Amino acid sequence: MNLNSINIIKGQNLFSALMVKVKKLWSLIGFEAFVWLAGLAYLIFIHTPGETHFTICPLANLGYNFCPGCSLGNSISYLFRSDFLSSFHSHPLGIFALIIITIRIISIIKNNRRRHA
């Protein structure tokens, strides 16, 4: 065996060890919790509340100014930016929705831990 083949074997072992950890993490989180976490990450890091952009929202595309779903996303995004008044004005149930989503994520992860423990 030469040095290059040893490095490839070490790299494969590192990759397979990484894949085992990723699979374990995926089984712990699950698909639904991943989707909820990805949505919240979008609202935290990417979404700018009140900004107009392309949307797939049918109400916004029909020209309505108020959409309960879009306003709920804006409200949660304002909450992550600590703008509580704008959050409440955007949608009064924003904080309640964030609490419910957080509880759901925690319950999914707890159930997956019990199942895979």
Describe the fold and architecture.
This protein has 117 residues and is mainly alpha-helical. The protein has one domain (30-116). Helices cover 76% and strands 0% of the residues. The protein is built from six helices and no strands. It has helices at 3-29, 31-45, 58-61, 68-80, 84-90, 94-116. The protein is elongated and about 55 Å long. The two termini are 40 Å apart. 11% of the residues are buried. The mean pLDDT is 83.
Highlighted features:
single chain, 117 residues, mainly alpha
What topology emerges from the helices and strands here?
Blueprint: H1 3-29, H2 31-45, H3 58-61, H4 68-80, H5 84-90, H6 94-116
- N-to-C SSE string, H for helix and E for strand: HHHHHH
Head-to-tail CA distance between termini: 40 Å
What general form does the structure show? elongated
Number of helices: 6
Which percent range describes the beta-strand content? under 5%
* Rounded radius of gyration (Å): 21 Å
> Which range best describes the helical content: under 10%, 10-25%, 25-40%, 40-55%, 55-70% or over 70%?
over 70%
Mean pLDDT: 83
Number of strands: 0
Low-confidence stretches: none
Biggest β-sheet description = none
Structural class: mainly alpha
Number of domains as seen in the coordinates: 1
